[in-house]
Amino acid sequence: MNNEYIYTEFLKVLDSEKILTDAPMKNHTSFKAGGCADYLLIPDTEDEIKLIIEICKQNNMPYYIMGNGSNLLVKDKGYRGVIIKLGKNFSKCTLIGNDLDCQSGVFLSRLAKIALDNELSGFEFASGIPGTLGGAVTMNAGAYDGEMKDVLVSIRGLDMDGNIIELANGDLELGYRTSAVKKRNLVVLSAKIRLESGNKKKIKEKMEDFDEKRKSKQPLELPSAGSAFKRPVGHYAGKLIEDSGLKGFAIGGAQVSTKHCGFIVNINSATAKDILDLIDHIIKTVKDNFNVILEPEVKIIGED
Hints:
Blueprint: H1 3-11, E1 19-24, E2 36-41, H2 46-58, E3 63-66, E4 72-74, E5 79-85, E6 93-96, E7 99-103, H3 108-117, E8 120-121, H4 133-139, E9 142-143, E10 146-147, E11 152-158, E12 164-168, H5 180-183, E13 187-194, E14 196-197, H6 200-217, E15 224-227, H7 237-243, E16 250-251, E17 254-256, E18 263-266, H8 272-290, E19 299-301
Parallel strand pairs: 2-5, 3-5, 4-19
Antiparallel strand pairs: 1-2, 6-7, 7-13, 8-14, 9-10, 11-12, 11-13, 15-18, 16-17, 17-18
């Protein structure tokens, strides 16, 4: 692969400051661990995203689309290809009545603040989830008394052939940490959510209550990717891990949180391998003790 040629191709689409080479992904993920991506591109528009994907396909170059990296781990040898980051650069929101139409890179916390400022209720559950709208739609993110399927009206996405498609809530197959977006490898470009008129004071109180619960129960002061495992049917991952005697167990700089065993935290410059080895150890130990197989919730990409 002629790197100079590829870089020149990307320059036709993006300004140079939005094309990062050998980008350390620990600077772009909440785990603060992992290797470098050959290219990290930061587009502002749907057209730019489509053109980047076109270049990647024409040159048989792997690509991955991320949000703010709150659920992503890049292995230590990095990612050989292009990572397209949709974050603050891709986060416009339009309010029409009780509907919010937003680009996929908007942070859920910002979306919750917009809802609060406009006295709209129904999005309080997401105010403390550390992710973007695109990721939340893909995984049908939820917390406390709500999940994305409760508020989603529709999404606009990009399919594998570069076609823009629209899917209504009923076509999104929204289930526990899954959706048609995930199954069909769609890229979420934007989503429309519908909220209800509410009382600003009550909305704020609910958000603050959820925030307090998170602070008291979750290790928010340390780098992590949130819940490390999906909830197994009939069980809670955190309880199974704690009952396996793994509270505080560490491999290298990665540790099972002493505050909430469902979290893996980076306590001392953990490598991606530390984290992955700890995930494997937890899965094996819980399987041996309870015959329950935990499934990681963290997205893992890159080379060992």
